[in-house]
Specification:
Order of helices and strands: HHEHE
Strand content: 5-15%
Largest sheet: 2 strands, parallel
Structural class: alpha+beta
Number of helices: 3
Shape: globular
Number of strands: 2
Length: about 90
């Protein structure tokens, strides 16, 4: 994420997605990954959510909600972490 090209794409995503409304992120993500199990509570494997608490693309409340749906799941937040934070 440190190259000028990737930073430019990230900046575009950060500004363009919110302009298109709340459905833009799930719609975009659906093109790149299989659908989530419905309901999430059917997941029975160990699950860890990693989320930057300063994420401007996906609010941390979304991850807190998903975390609460899966028994035994862990939630690890990165203080001041953005959308592509890695610890």
């Amino acid at each position: 994420m440190g190259t000028p090209e990737l930073l430019a794409l990230s900046d575009l995503d950060t500004t363009e997605a919110p302009r298109q409304g709340v459905d833009s992120a799930p719609t975009g993500l659906s093109c790149h990954s299989p659908p989530l199990p419905d309901p999430l509570g059917t997941i029975s494997v160990p699950t860890v959510f990693l989320h930057g608490d300063a994420d401007g693309n996906v609010p941390i409340e979304v991850t807190r909600w998903a975390h609460a749906q899966i028994d035994g799941a862990e939630l690890d937040t990165a203080p001041d972490g953005g959308h592509s934070s890695i610890r």
